[in-house]
Design brief:
binds pyridoxal-5'-phosphate, elongated, Lyase, Ornithine Decarboxylase, Chain A, domain 1, alpha/beta, 369 residues, five-stranded mixed sheet, TIM Barrel, eight-stranded parallel sheet, 20 strands
Length: 369
């Protein structure tokens, strides 16, 4: 489809590759990039294509649908669904050679049955809840896993857990989780069940918890160049920029208003630029009256309520502004930068939500392939 609306997310694949190389400086373990939610909004098919060129062979997604899209494009890759899949979808998993997580008996039983029926072996990873409180085997893990291990036509390739506080200043709870995980693993080994791949590390754990790296790491956000949390600022480069061009310019008088409910009233004659982007594109409405964009290397403030498809900014102080000028909503312009982390902090959320909130309506443009 042609793109007539001048709004786009620029995805820098060279920066993505450099971020992968930076991650490799933190660990020797295998890297399984997490590309759920369309690679945190960057476009899973393109992101996987780029990382594959760097030798990555295994990728993690949240849902079966996401895995099936990647399977279509990349028949050779190892694809794992790190979130739960209901037992009734086991045949698709086995047929498409997609590794599911298993966090309850019913999944294992159904996988085994599907694999037996299809005369295949189903590869799976067991999820253990050591303190995240989301999914996974808990107190009865040892007993249940031993029971699963006796099922026909399955191969328990991996066992993993997820850390709830790897990004906190205090790592006591994370160490406790790892200890629980290690203890369970040792008990399984003592029972003769040796599972080749253990994993626990998300981005913050890759950066600061080497004892969580085991055989495999699961970084997400740092690949996309964003610090997982404040205080963990790193050398990673943001991969995505969000841009729009000015589609309308006018000057309003003192006392005139902008947008719904007239929440902005001009205190002085104001030069107003309209951008063809709104909350339906993921430009969060919480940024109304105060959020910033970049234009000609300078900051301009969003005025009035952000609408579904349009947003107004005050460009009074910026010289030479013309119709069609490019405005940076996320990213760098000259010396100025607007990061997903800063934008998130200003509206009380996290950078993850900003990135994956950039909607499908925004075309992705891939640069530096
Ligand atoms: C999303 C997710 C990750 C990646 O987390 P980041 O903080 O983005 O690195 C890793 N593991 C699991 C289980 C996840 O759900």
């Amino acid at each position: 489809m042609d793109n007539f609306r001048p709004v786009w997310a620029e995805v820098n694949l060279a920066a993505l590759k450099r971020n992968l190389q930076r991650i490799k400086q933190y660990t020797d373990s295998e890297i399984m990039p997490i590309v759920k939610a369309n690679a945190y909004g960057h476009g899973a098919v393109e992101v996987v294509g780029a990382l594959r060129e760097e030798g990555i062979k295994r990728f993690g997604v949240a849902f079966l649908e996401e895995a099936l899209v990647l399977r279509q494009y990349y028949p050779d890759l190892t694809i794992m669904v790190i979130g739960p899949t209901l037992p009734e979808f086991s045949e698709i998993l086995v047929q498409q050679d997609i590794i599911p997580e298993v966090c309850q008996w019913e999944q294992a039983e159904a996988l085994s049955a599907a694999a037996t029926k299809l005369k295949k072996t189903a590869r799976l990873h067991l999820k253990v809840d050591t303190g995240m409180g989301r999914i996974g085997f808990r107190e009865n893990a040892l007993k249940e896993i031993k029971r699963i291990a006796r099922l026909p036509n399955i191969f328990i390739e991996g066992i993993y857990t997820h850390l709830a506080t790897a990004d906190s200043v205090d790592l006591t709870y994370a160490y406790k989780q790892l200890q629980t995980f290690d203890k369970l693993y040792e008990s399984l080994c003592a029972e003769g069940l040796e599972i080749p791949i253990r994993h626990a590390a998300n981005s913050p754990a890759v950066l600061r918890l080497p004892q969580s790296h085991y055989e495999l790491c699961r970084p997400g956000i740092i690949l996309y160049g964003i610090a997982p949390t404040k205080g963990l600022e790193t050398e990673f480069e943001p991969v995505m920029s969000l841009k729009a061009r000015i589609v309308h310019l006018k000057t309003i008088d003192k006392g005139q208003s902008v947008s719904y409910n007239r929440s902005f009233i001009a205190a002085y004659p104001t030069r107003v630029a309209t951008l063809p982007i709104g909350y339906a594109d993921g430009l969060r409405r919480g940024l109304s009256n105060g959020g910033e964009v970049l234009l000609n290397g300078q900051r301009a403030v969003i005025i009035g309520q952000i609408c579904m498809d349009q947003t107004m900014v005050d460009v009074t102080e910026i010289e030479g502004v013309k119709l069609g000028d490019v405005v940076t909503i996320l990213g760098r312009d000259g010396e100025e930068t607007i990061s997903a982390a800063k934008m998130a902090a200003s509206i009380n959320t996290i950078s993850y939500e900003i990135l994956c909130g950039i909607s499908q309506r925004v075309p992705r443009i891939y640069v530096n392939r």
